[in-house]
Each structure stands twice: as structure tokens, then as C-alpha cells.
């Protein structure tokens, strides 16, 4: 079985982003970029499935600018076998990406596609579900556990009230939540080796997909600020203020 | 403008998220129907019919809808989509599971987690864990939207709309429900609680978390939350996580105990009315958003707080 793992290049999770002065987006110049953390978890899960002898090949794919190949190299250094960069300079939206991925799935025929549950830049949380819909496949979103048995995948999902387990007919889509695993760091020898692994370049048109944005961004602004309040000296003072000043107790 | 709101419920009862998503829907347009998809869900449907502003409630019942699996639920919504301009779901784990599937099948973009309706086709939504707010306009005739319910007040009750039974769509038959492991407790639900007390990594263990946080929660009638660090360390279950990828809450009072205040945690609670931070590190970022900060050892402060309340 082949595993397909789509990965996205995003602003590093530790960077505090700033809105651009012209209100047309956030400042991305000279900002540290990294693989979307949920996608790292997805890559790690694929590697574990392969290590357990349940898959033969891991293909990673990214839909984005030329620099997204750095993200793909990271995934290759972690343990993926080959990579596909679907190059576009459009501001991609989840639906467009899902359409490209549908094309990749049809070309590569993986038994399982594992994605991060959401990208930490646009926080959309859509691509996996959309890909599942376009393919007519089952989806196991927000996964904290995946068990493969024959032609079924048992997926435990993190839901609002606790955990839900579903059984999906394969091929299927799984989106990774935080507790699925702890991604490994790529070792230096593996980083060197990753440079020699195959990385194909394609375009959305190669897969017959249109990635033009459907939404119009009118403006981007700073959120309403919250000012730091006061420091209290004691529990008694805190309770007094909550009762009499804030009126919340 | 006709709008369909996908209800959040557990068959027997309707969740507060539905009433909040309804408020957002009523700001988009006035002809709003509510879809209750479930099994034995008359209770939830009757509750939805009482919400002010609901035109009618559509009740679809089938085995495969009992746990609101994404595939049959999306198929059902698609079967109704021709009658509606806009489809709205609360951004709960269930809404987030189903709505993008619907959008893709309709070949339209989805607008996720709106926090404000600017006009019927223009919305505000947070990006980058709430560090920026984007105003986006939908360019397509049909719209699929999820609503961050913490940003909208619940629609009030008092109407009595009709409940119309409708047929479920054919089950795509690719998924099956196995089991739910629901965390049981008598405390209020995190996303609708008036008071929340949250614990962070500084609690040090699951035992200490329970010993120190829970009695104060019970005394206050509060829901219990946790930071990602505390959940990852196993001090608290996953469904207590507050933050960018956990639950987004906006209670009247949020008490953060031993929580440092990572951007991702702040994203989930900074709309709270009053924030209290208790932390021994006076440089902790949580103090930058707290209305009241108390610097000190939580293991001394919380027992004292319990006595004072």
C-alpha cells in the first residue's frame, strides 16, 4: 500500500505574526517558515505505519510556491520516500488544494491519505474533509489513533465530548490531531540522504485543477487588543475585586 | 435569502451551539430552517422549534445518522442544498467534520469560524490563532459557513415552529460508528460555562490537577479547562483543551492556573470577559491579557482560594 501525505509550508508556530501596514495580509518577509505542525504529525504517522510493515511507500506532496520544496525535503528527511511539488504562486484555498490532491490521488492510488487536521496559518480545517468528499471516500478527522486491519481503518477521533471511534472503508482520508504521535526529528545523515530522494515538480494544470481563490479578502486587521490589568497581592484582594469590581462572583 | 442551520445535538437534547449558530444565521437572512439529523432525535427537534426566528425544523432520522457520521450527514445536507442559499453549522467538532464535505460537494469555498457577520456575503474570521482578523467576501451564490459560537449570543426561546420529518439520503456506506468514550462529569460544559478554571503544566501531575483544580471548580460551579501542555502531559483529557486547536471559550470569568499563556492558548480564551491569572512566574505572557494577576505558588493560592470563596 502507498501512503500519501500532503504538507503545507506555513509561518513557524513560534512566530507572532504581524498584520501588514496596508491591511492586505500578514507580514511574511523574513519570517521563519516551517512545516505545518499537524502535517509533521501526519508524516510521522505514515512513517510508523510503514515501519510496522503495513505500507511500502510514502509520498509527500505540497501545493505551493517553489520554497515549499524545503518543507518536502524535511518530510523526506523524516522518512518519506519521494515528493511532489505542485507549484503555484496563487494564495491557495482548501478547495483548490483538495482538487489538486484529488488529481494526485488518482495518479498515485494510495490506500490512505493522512493530512494535518488544520493549517496554523489560515486555521481553515477543511482540506482533508474536502478531499474525502471529492473522492467519495470515508473520513476520520481529528485522529488520535489509527489502526489498520485489512481493508478497514479504525480511527479514534478527538471530539467535543471526548473520543469517538469510527471504522472506515479503505481507501480513506485521515486528519491528524495533536495526540496522534510525537513527530521525530530528522537526523543529520537522513537530512543528507533526503537531498538525493526524488522530488517531482508539477503544476495544478497537470492535474486539471483550478486553484484560483474563490473568496475575496477585503482586509486583514489586528485583533482588538486586551490590556494587562492589575496585579493583586492576595487571595482576599482577588476575591474582593472579582465580587465588587468585576461582579463575576 | 434562505438559510439552513445544521443543529448540534445528542438526539435527546439540543446543544446551546445551535442557538448561537442560529443567531449568526439570522444576521445573514431571515428565512432560517434548522436541520436535526439523528436517530430518536424528536427531543432535539422540538427544542429547536422553540428557538426564536426558526421558520421550520427539518427532522431526518436514520441509523447512520445516530452519531452524525460525516458521510451520511453531508449526503443529507446535499439533498437539501438546492433549497438554500447559505448553509451554516456551528464550528463544533461535528460541524467542522461535516461542513467542508458539504462545501466540496457543492463546489464552493467554505468560510470557517466566522466571528462577525458584516453583511450577508461578508464575514470576519480569525487567522493565525487569532493574531489577525480577516474580512472575507464570498463570491459564489451558495455559501457554506461555520460559526465560532463563542462570538454570538444564543437565540432566545419562545417560538413554536413546525417540525417536518424528512427522509434521510442514501448512506454512502463507507463508514461505521464503533463507540464513544464520553467524559462524564456533572460540571457545566466548557463552551457554555459562565466560569472556567483552567490548569497548565505547572500542576505537575494528573493527581495534583484533580486535587487542586477540581474542588475550586466545584465550589464555583465552573467548567474545567486545560492548556495543551497539560493535556499532552496527560494531566487532563483532550476534550478539556482550550486553545487554537482545542475549544474556544468566552466565559464571564476565566481563571488560568499555572498556564504560561502561549499564543495558541490565548487564542482560545482571550475573549473572556474577566481573566484571572495565577502563576509563579511574573513574566508569564498570561499576565499580559489578565485583568487580575496573582503572582505566587498555585499550590498555596488555590487551597486558600477554596477557603475564601
From TrEMBL, chain A:
Pfam families: ETF (PF01012). This is Electron transfer flavoprotein subunit beta. GO terms for molecular function: electron transfer activity. Its cofactor is AMP. Belongs to the ETF beta-subunit/FixA family. Signal peptide: none annotated. CDD domains: ETF_beta. Residues 23-211 form the Electron transfer flavoprotein alpha/beta-subunit N-terminal domain. Heterodimer of an alpha and a beta subunit. GO terms for biological process: carboxylic acid catabolic process. The electron transfer flavoprotein serves as a specific electron acceptor for other dehydrogenases. It transfers the electrons to the main respiratory chain via ETF-ubiquinone oxidoreductase (ETF dehydrogenase). Keywords: Electron transport, Transport.
Automatic annotation (TrEMBL), chain B:
Pfam families: ETF (PF01012), ETF_alpha (PF00766). Keywords: Electron transport, FAD, Flavoprotein, Transport. FAD binds at residues 201, 227-228, 241-245, 258-265, 279. The keyword Amino-acid biosynthesis does not apply. It comes from the Bacteria. CDD domains: ETF_alpha. Binds 1 FAD per dimer. GO terms for molecular function: electron transfer activity; flavin adenine dinucleotide binding. Residues 3-181 form the Electron transfer flavoprotein alpha/beta-subunit N-terminal domain. Its cofactor is FAD. InterPro entries: DHS-like_NAD/FAD-binding_dom, ETF_a/b_N, ETF_a/FixB, ETF_alpha_N, ETF_asu_C, ETF_asu_C_CS, Rossmann-like_a/b/a_fold. The electron transfer flavoprotein serves as a specific electron acceptor for other dehydrogenases. It transfers the electrons to the main respiratory chain via ETF-ubiquinone oxidoreductase (ETF dehydrogenase). Belongs to the ETF alpha-subunit/FixB family. This is Electron transfer flavoprotein subunit alpha. It comes from Mesorhizobium plurifarium. The gene is etfA.
